[in-house]
Amino acid sequence: MKNLFFLNYIEALGAAVLGCLTYIGGIILLLLDSVKWIIRGILQFNLRIRLFIEQAAVLGVNSFSIVTITTCFTGAVISLQLAEMAVRYGAGRFVGGGVAISMARELAPMLTAIVVAGRAGSAITAEIGSMRVTEQIDALKAMATSPVKYLVVPRLLACSALLPMLCLFSMFAGVLGGAVVAHFIAGVRFDAYFDSIRNMMAMKDIYKGLFKSFIFAIEIAMISCYQGLNTEGGAAGVGKATTGSVVYSMLTVFITNFMLTALMFPIGQ
């Protein structure tokens, strides 16, 4: 009985690992196919600019308000916690630098990616998934139109271009939210707050944070499109694929964020 349980456990574990590797491999192949179409479009001056602009509006512009509000209040909370401890120990001049570094390195890229994954990534999966179950993607193939070129490439380019921009606005929103809280609640002067940012923060912190958001954008776009293209089971399948898209995107963002942080911001440097 114990041997049977152990064999069933090993079988289930092997199936899970195989499924995970298959999923990752499918996303990588989709990314490579998308890059091929992007390069071909650049060389042939055949990129669909109108589709890119439409997706940029949906993925980026329409997400601006919720992203900035989220990161503004996040910066305010971080500032509140740091200011309480800093003022207590006479280190109020370091509050601004602490908030800015936290936002630039970690919070702005990650929170922006999570918000976009929940709002725009789910919309991508739902739209492509609906096209899949209603056989519109099969119709594209029948017309000799690549679904990757027509559906995936504009969304990948829009997400890759707009997410770093949103991340930059998120950094500013978080810093400004932190400045207001530090000044009116903890009594930290605005000049001391922004002086600490200039003294403690380097431009490389911003660049690395934007690079993080670019990687997150590729992951979100690829996972969302892959989920949509592989949707099955009608309307229920679309809902399941959309939920999976958000969950997998967020999980990937958290894992990737840890690895990028370990590589770009090693301890002692």
Summary tags:
269 residues; 0% strand; globular
What would you say this structure looks like, in words?
- 86% of the residues lie in helices and 0% in strands.
- The protein is mostly helical.
- Helix 3 runs antiparallel to helix 4 (95-133) and helix 3 (64-88) runs parallel beside helix 6.
- It is globular, with a radius of gyration of 22 Å.
- The model has no long low-confidence stretch (mean pLDDT 86).
Put the structure in a nutshell.
By secondary structure, this protein is an all-alpha fold.
What is this structure's SSE topology?
Elements: H1 2-43, H2 49-59, H3 64-88, H4 95-133, H5 136-142, H6 147-184, H7 190-200, H8 203-229, H9 234-264
Helix pairs in contact: 1-6, 2-6, 3-4, 3-6, 4-6, 4-7, 4-8, 4-9, 6-8, 8-9
Rg over alpha carbons: 22 Å
Mean pLDDT equals: 86
Helix content: over 70%
Helix and strand composition category: mainly alpha
